[in-house]
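User: I'm writing a short report section on ligand binding and want a predicted complex to refer to. Could you take this sequence and adenosine-5'-diphosphate and write out the structure as C-alpha cells? A short remark afterwards would be nice.
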Amino acid sequence: MHTNSTRDGNKNGYKNSNFAKITLMKAGILGGGQLGRMLLQAAANYTVETFVLENDPHCPAAHLCHNFILGDITNFDDVYAFGKKVDVLTIEIENVNIEALEKLEAEGVKVIPKPSAIKIIKNKIKQKGFYQVNEIPTSDFVVTHTKESLPHHHAFLPAVHKLGEGGYDGKGVQIIRTKDDFEKGFDAPSVLEKMVAIDKELAMIVAIAQDGSATLYPPAEMIFDPVLNLLDYQISPAILPEKVSWKAEAIALKLVKAFNSPGLFAVELFVTKDEEVFVNETAPRVHNSGHHSIEANYSSQYDMLWRIMLNYPLGNPDAILPSAIVNILGAEGHSGEAVYTNLADVLGMDNVFVHLYGKKQTKPGRKMGHVTIMHKDYQDLRYKANKIKHTLKVEAKNS
Ligand SMILES: Nc1ncnc2c1ncn2[C@@H]1O[C@H](COP(=O)(O)OP(=O)(O)O)[C@@H](O)[C@H]1O
Ligand SMILES: [Mg+2]
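Assistant: Sure. The C-alpha cells for the complex follow:
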C-alpha cells in the first residue's frame, strides 16, 4: 500500500558521490528537550559530533550530547555563536532566533530545515497564509489582533482561536463556541479559524533529503483527551479508507515540498466524516507523533533526520508492525520530585517499550516519557494502551 520511490532509488545504487568517503561532521541541535534527547540516541550510530544549545543544564538532552552549550535559543548572539561551531544545524522546537539562522546559512552553515521554512511555521498567521497561497486545504480563518475585535467575527462560530506565536501543547489554543467564549480569546496577533467537525486526527511525517528526494511515513491517528486538549494515545498506521490515505499523503507531500527545504516535517491533518482532509498545522522537525518509529518502523524519524542532515541516503519509513504510543504525563495534583508508580508492571508487558525523558521534576500534565506498544492486532494495542494509562502514574515524592 505504501509507495516509496526513494527506497527503490536506493536499491538501484545511491548516486551521490559524497558517499565515497564519510567524514566526521559536527551537528548542532537548538533545544534540549525530549525530542533532542531521542535525536541524540539515534546519532550514536553515526560519525557525528553533537552539540546542544539550551538554557537548562539539566534538560533531557544535556547528558547525551558531546558538547552542551548553555544559552538561549531565542537570543541572536547565543544562536549565532553556537552555529559557528558546527557544519550542520537543526531544531527541536520552532521558537528559535531566525535572524541568527539566516546569517549562519548565508555564511555557509547548513541549516536544516531552512530558516525560511521555520519562519513561516513558527507563526500560525504566516502558516495559514502559506496554506492559502499554495492551495493546501485548511479551515477558513481570519487574522485578529485584539480581544475586542473578536465579536466582529461571530459569523465564524464555532471557531478555534490560536495565538500567532508562542503556543505549544494546546496552550495558545482556545475553543470559541458561542459569543460568551470571546472572553477566553487572545489579546495578541492570532488566527480565528472555523471549527472542523473532526472524525479523525492524523499526523503524516515527511522526509525531504538534501537532493530533494522525499519519502513518507504511514499516517498515525491521534486520539485526544477532550479535557486536557492533549494527546491521549496514538495508533499507527492509521486504519483509513484508501481514498483518505491517498488524499492525506498527496496533501502532506505537496505542502512539505512547497517549503523548498530539506528536513523532517510533521503535518497534522483533520479528516471529516465526508472524507474531506484539511491541514491543521505543520512542524518542521521531529514530532511527538513519530516516537513509535524508534521501534516500530525500519528507520525511525530520528534516524531519518540524521540521514538528511549528514546527506546520507534516506531510510525506509515503513512500519515493521502496527504500534501505539501512550504519553506518560505528570499526575494531577502532583508537583515535585518525580516517582514512577507501577513502572515494573508496564516493563513486564510483552512488546512494550518504555522511554523516560530524565526529567527530575514532575508537574500536572508534564510530558515525562512515553510508552510504545507493538502488535499485529489493533485490539491488543488499544487494550494495552488503556491498561498502561491506568497503571503507570508519575507522582511527586512527598505528596
Ligand atoms: N479548526 C479546528 N477545528 C477543530 N478542532 C481544532 C481546530 N484547530 C485545532 N483543533 C483542536 O485543537 C488541537 C490543538 O490545536 P493545534 O493547532 O494543533 O495546536 P498545538 O500547537 O497546541 O498542537 C488540535 O489537535 C485539535 O484537536
Ligand atoms: Mg497540534
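A remark for your report: The longest strand covers residues 198-208. DSSP finds eleven helices and 21 strands in the chain.
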